[in-house]
Amino acid sequence: DVIVRNDTTIQPNKVLIVYLSRTNNTKAIAEIIYENMGGTLVPLELEKPYPENYQATVQQVAKENETGYLPPLKTKIDNIDNYNVVFVGFPTWGMQLPPPMKSFLNQYDLGGKTIVPFNTNGGYGIGSSFQAVKELCPNSKVLNGFTIQGGSERDGRYLVIKDKKRKEAQTQVKNWLQGLRLMKENP
Length: 187
Ligand SMILES: Cc1cc2nc3c(=O)[nH]c(=O)nc-3n(C[C@H](O)[C@H](O)[C@H](O)COP(=O)(O)O)c2cc1C
Known about the structure:
Number of helices: 5
Bound molecules: flavin mononucleotide
GO molecular function: FMN binding
Structural class: alpha/beta
Helix content: 25-40%
Organism: Flavihumibacter solisilvae
Order of helices and strands: EEHEHEHEHEEHE
Pfam families: Flavodoxin_4
Largest sheet: 6 strands, parallel
Domain Flavodoxin-like: 15-181
CATH topology: Rossmann fold
Number of domains: 1
CATH superfamily: Flavodoxin domain
Strand content: 15-25%
Number of strands: 8
Shape: globular
Protein name: Flavodoxin
């Protein structure tokens, strides 16, 4: 057997994949990561969900970003200390990290862990979101994130990471994970 140095193998039970998703594009990427890494897949849910209406949500998010409001989470993670790799997935909202993900990173002590961001967006990129993850996790090792174009609710495009696009995303996610030298330990 060839032993490749620097390869980091990870036991699936040490992997947590937390994601925020409204129209399921980020969820699709989270599922692809899960297929490759195993672990525990957790959607972030709020105590008080955002409105169904897109414009109302945009306005609420803008206000929350302005005031630094951290919306309370319904989702609770048991035994966060059992995980040493935490994937955090989110859409770009108002060119920033969405408030619920700020709540998550603020609420849990992720010091000493490896944090792996991933993102979908409407075509305008990650904005300040990856930088915000770094700032909210000052004592963690934050790896290079993954980003891909998702939908655009504004333009009536909802879930687009499906069918052929999902296949393409699978290849991109695999390449990214390999580049990070993260891989599931074979039993
Ligand atoms: C409130 C809100 C704000 C958004 N702001 C942006 C933005 O600033 N830039 C961008 O490229 N896309 C923006 N989008 C589009 C989403 O990032 C994109 O549709 C993403 O794929 C949605 O992920 P989801 O399907 O997991 O919810 C916004 C969407 C919403 C709902």
